[in-house]
Amino acid sequence: MITASSFFWSSMEIIAEGLEFPRYPECPACASRHVCLDEQKGTLRCESCGQEWHEHLYVLVEFPDDTSSFEEGYIGYPSFGNRDNGARYVPEYDYIARFKKQPESDRYFKPLRWPESQLYLFPNEPNDTLNSQNELIQDEYGIEAFGENAV
What we know:
The longest helix has 15 residues, at 4-18. The termini are far apart. Helices cover 28% and strands 15% of the residues.
């Protein structure tokens, strides 16, 4: 039995294809339109060059990398913990598109909305390393995108 919801989404896919709206963004490394979703890994993958990226992960960009193009384009959110060096959290896709390289593994962050963020909002102890690695999202655009009490 076909439900109204499944009919709606299948119709939307057909309409999008007819209007030539791609299902996935072009590859940030080579601009190919041959991109597919790897459901097991939760990543998008370019079939032309092999580049992979996550849709919902952010990368901390800080000195010596230049963050001005991200700031000027309103891409990502400032890191208030690293304000002196202009550090910024940007989507992995935009990082790869700008720098044409994969971010280092220790630079990835995932925004957490309320109520998932509760565990990370307040340190249990002054030297709580789990919470010291997290940062409250305080930027107006970040709050609009993720809500209050997001980390």
